[in-house]
Design brief:
The protein is an alpha+beta fold. It is built from 22 helices and 32 strands. The strands form 8 sheets. An 8-stranded parallel beta barrel has the order 15-16-17-18-19-20-21-22, surrounded by 6 helices. Strands 14-25-26-27-32-29-30 form a 7-stranded antiparallel sheet, with helices on one face. A 6-stranded antiparallel sheet has the order 1-2-5-6-4-3, with helices on both faces.
């Protein structure tokens, strides 16, 4: 090891050879006690004092951090004689790290003064670090001021990799709290110079065991799902071994007990610490921590399911049970009636296929060009409470421009946890957005995925606190139609519980849902007894039952399928993914995505249950009609399929669902201009050779390309075909 022992006055110690210390410098170290007596102490949470001092070494003044360790008991001094003092262990561990290229403040020396078997003084000297912060402080800053998942993931990976390097260098820290990891911010999205401090408990070994590694990781303080990700990053983007997971959990529980009992073991010190903590701004924790992922365009869960459930209010169960008790009989009765009416009525399907627009920076000229290629579809624009007011203004300007160019605008007001925690923030948001949208937006959707706590709503009645200011401001500033409550997925028990809490009648002009069926694959696949069509019918029955909904109008305001191989940009793989390891992944190929989209929208509109569908969204790497990965956006098959379906639907009315074999779905339409017929058909599951019982003039692929046909039948697959000029 690159260290040389020395004697300086009353002190024995060792110095790091990289400094090439001269004898005058070594002699000067004997004045360490005077330096400490005349220096201002650096604030520290521990029992040991820390000062900054400048010492001339090699012709330049070097800033040093000098840690003075407090005196211990006789028993400890006996132990220190055998194992080395805290200063010595700090020094030799730092030398080991420095020699192996692992970050730590560059060690200078340690000094011990012994007298009759007692350690009287003990000091560790290293290079003082200017302009550094800690892992703890950076996490707290991000949580409170800049909760962007991408940045948090970058910080976690930077630190996890450094810890792995430290362990690979043969050092087990044994006190690896977030506060003992120093780093420097390198712009908004990167960190560097990871350095480990407080090394006096460290252990050096040639190869660390899983037990030692688990012990260190168990001191890292992160929300449980971020901890899951952190451990994968630590193992170089691999799942941790099962043995490690068990050991880490055991040590974490042990440390949690140790922390909880500290107030009994050190009551005075802990009382003083709690008093200091109360004066400091507290970063969000638990249910108050809300993190935004701009890559998958969603809030992310910071806790694993088990930990989230610890924060669920029991009152939610009562509210849901009460709503179900009231709703079960009338809703099911209405549902059966609706299912008997499915596909029975001729329906105008034009103008009812919309698309969500706007990227992180708003609607760009490039996206406007894509919108123009789609004709004049209704557009959905989300306005986010968590964004800066400048961005809110930009999104409102986008809505104005789209309205002027002939698009119907559906505006969705999206909450965050801060807006729920502080109602003034939400009221300020809606008071800015809603008046500016008068005459621009036909609809306002209140809330977003309100049954997913990652979006900020933990109690059902918190949704009511969002709804009331919107109703108040909307009624004061224009004649808006209101949609909600935007429950996501097939969780209608939550929906009836929530609707039952809204005491005012006719609040919603339409019931809006984010009705995904992606985990079932094709929209025709069933979840129990319910395919997509049955879910539409059940939602419409709930709308009919609830006094909070005027009529039974149903809008699907968000749906898509996640795409394969899009990594963290996929909503089901964010915020972190290990290649080839995602289980229960509902992601589909781009071809299936396009087919499922067309089939979902035809089933929704032609069943007679859904008023309109808004596809989420036009441009997105993980789930959009267009892929913005490259500078030149790539139009996916779904873009062409959506454009073709919209063009056809603008000219036709739905007539009937045709009687076919069980595996064939065929829907007949009538052209509003010339009265000619059109049939859209596909097979599910598998392929079917189908001989239509009608004549047709032309056959088109799902994406709008004409297909040459010969005599005989047609092979139907999951990709819908358009039979045009049907007689």
């Amino acid at each position: 090891m690159s260290a040389t022992k020395f004697q300086s006055g009353h002190y024995t110690g060792a110095m790091y050879d990289q400094w090439s210390l001269t004898q005058p410098v070594v002699d000067a170290l004997s004045s360490v006690k005077q330096w400490i007596n005349h220096a201002r102490e650096i604030p520290s949470l521990g029992r040991h004092s820390l000062i900054r001092h400048e010492l001339e070494i090699g012709g330049r003044l070097v800033p040093l951090a000098i840690k003075s360790f407090s005196r211990g008991s006789l028993f400890r001094d006996m132990r220190f004689r055998k194992l080395g003092s805290k200063a010595a262990r700090s020094f030799y561990t730092a030398v080991r790290l420095s020699d192996r290229g692992v970050g730590t403040p560059r060690p200078l020396a340690f000094l011990d003064r012994w007298d009759g078997g007692r350690l009287i003084e003990s000091y560790y000297l290293c290079e003082y670090q200017e302009d550094v912060t800690s892992f703890r402080d950076e996490l707290n800053r991000l949580y409170a001021e800049d909760p962007l998942c991408r940045r948090i993931m970058t910080l976690l990976e930077t630190v996890a990799t450094a810890i792995a390097d430290m362990h690979d260098a043969g050092v087990c820290h044994r006190d690896l709290g977030n506060q003992n990891i120093l780093l420097r911010r390198d712009g908004e999205d990167a960190w560097k110079d990871i350095q480990f401090i407080d090394l006096n408990r460290a252990h050096i070994a040639d190869n660390l065991s899983l037990d030692q590694r688990a012990r260190d990781i168990s001191r890292i303080d992160l929300p449980s799902d971020f901890l899951r990700v952190f451990k994968c990053m630590y193992f170089r983007h691999q799942h941790p071994p099962k043995e490690f997971q068990e050991l880490e959990l055991r040590y974490r529980k042990r440390f949690a007990f140790h922390t909880a009992s500290r107030k009994y073991r050190h009551p005075v010190r802990e009382a003083r610490q709690r008093k200091l903590d109360a004066c400091l701004p507290q970063a969000p924790r638990g249910r108050e921590l809300w993190v935004w992922d701009d890559r998958s365009v969603q809030a992310v869960s910071t806790m694993i399911s088990k930990d989230r459930h610890k924060y669920y209010p029991m009152a939610n169960n009562f509210m849901v049970a009460r709503g179900l008790f009231k709703a079960v009989h009338p809703v099911y009765s209405r549902y059966r009636d609706l299912m008997n009416q499915a596909y029975r009525a001729e329906t105008n399907v034009s103008g009812r296929l919309g698309v969500a627009v706007g990227t992180e920076d708003g609607v760009s000229a490039q996206e406007r060009n894509l919108i123009d290629q789609l004709g004049k579809p209704p557009v959905l624009i989300r306005l986010y409470r968590h964004e800066h007011e400048e961005m809110l203004r930009r999104r409102i300007d986008d809505a104005v421009a789209l309205r002027k160019s002939g698009h119907a605008v559906f505006a969705a007001l999206v909450q965050d946890r801060a807006g729920i925690r502080d109602p003034k923030l939400w009221r300020s948001f809606v008071s800015t957005a809603i008046p500016a949208l008068y005459g621009i937006a036909d609809w306002l959707e209140v809330g977003h995925a309100v049954n997913r706590v990652k979006w900020g709503i933990w109690r059902l009645d918190e949704y009511v606190s969002l709804l009331n200011p919107v109703l108040e401001v909307a009624r004061a500033h224009g004649n808006f139609r209101i949609a909600g409550p935007a429950v996501i997925d097939f969780e209608f028990h939550y929906l009836v519980g929530l609707l039952d809490m809204i005491k005012e009648d006719n609040v919603f002009d339409a019931l809006s849902l984010h009705l995904y069926v992606d985990r079932r694959g094709a929209p025709e696949n069933r979840q129990g007894a319910f395919s997509a069509v049955e879910k539409f019918a059940m939602a419409k029955a709930i709308a009919s039952w609830s006094s909070a909904v005027k009529g039974d109008r149903l809008i699907v305001s968000e749906v898509n399928w996640p795409l394969l191989d899009t990594g963290v940009y996929s909503p089901v793989c964010s915020p972190y993914t290990i290649p080839n390891s995602h289980t229960n992944d509902p992601s589909v190929s781009e071809d299936d995505y396009a087919s499922f989209m067309v089939r979902y929208e035809i089933l929704a509109l032609c069943s007679g249950f859904v008023d309109s569908v808004y596809w989420w969204r036009l441009v997105a790497r993980g789930f959009g009609l267009a892929d913005d990965t490259r500078p030149e956006w790539r139009l996916r098959p779904a873009f062409h399929a959506f454009r073709h379906l919209r063009e056809r639907f603008e000219r036709v009315d739905f007539v009937e669902k045709m009687q076919t074999s069980e595996r064939v779905r065929a829907f007949r339409f009538r052209d509003k201009l010339d009265g000619h017929g059109m049939v859209v058909a596909w097979a599910h599951p598998g392929k079917v050779n189908w001989t239509p019982d009608f004549q047709y003039e032309r056959l088109y692929h799902r994406n709008g390309d004409q297909i040459e046909t010969g005599a005989g039948g047609v092979e139907l697959t999951g990709s819908p075909l358009y039979f045009v000029g049907v007689t």
